[in-house]
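Entry 14. Structure prediction run on the chain below.
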Amino acid sequence: MIYLARKFTLISTIFAGTFLLSQPPSSVAVLTKVKGNVQIQKSNSNSEFSLVKAGQLLNHKDIIKTSANAFAVLIYLDDKSMVKLRGNTNLEIQGERIGKSLKKNLEITAGTVRAIVSEQRRGEFSISSPTSVASVKGTDLWFQSDNEEGDAIFCLEGIVQLINNSSGEIVDLLMNQTGVSTPDGNLSVFATVPADIPIDEDDSGQEPKEFRIRFKDSDGAEKVLIIKYN
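Output returned:
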């Protein structure tokens, strides 16, 4: 039994840590929770956005968007880093393979996400927007992006390296610090005001639920991934 970033449990007595290698090359994450109108545009097609349910496997360069009052949670398959999407969020999920790890990036065009990131090894984890890039190594943070006003990054734990795309200025955010990056190149850091931190809408107090993902490995044998979540 492997514990996932505080609130998720991944059970696999059949294949342990080989799930990532057994997946199609583009599978990088899975949606574990969906509330409200959450849609996806698959990377391997020119199709329109379509509604998704929990258990949907996500590929490199899939685009996810949430409507107002919607909410979604996804986890990366290599190290169980967790990403929570609030309403009115639009992002592209990326995961390029480096051996058994993934070089992960969330390309957010608008909205708010929380990333609870496992300590990164050879891979990297970043969140990028038209205004900024936040590089993360093992951190809990909120990233709030607006096309006109820019980005606000709330570092809850760990360290975040924040880069302003316009000026190239770089700062390190520590625990309980907020960074504000604007389209005109300004980058500022100050102590976090608790009331400014976005609300986490996850229902962590509920009884655990689970769903199962069936797939075939490279030898054609059927295996099952069981994910329990709150």
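Confidence is low (pLDDT under 50) at residues 1-25.
Filed with the rest of this week's runs.
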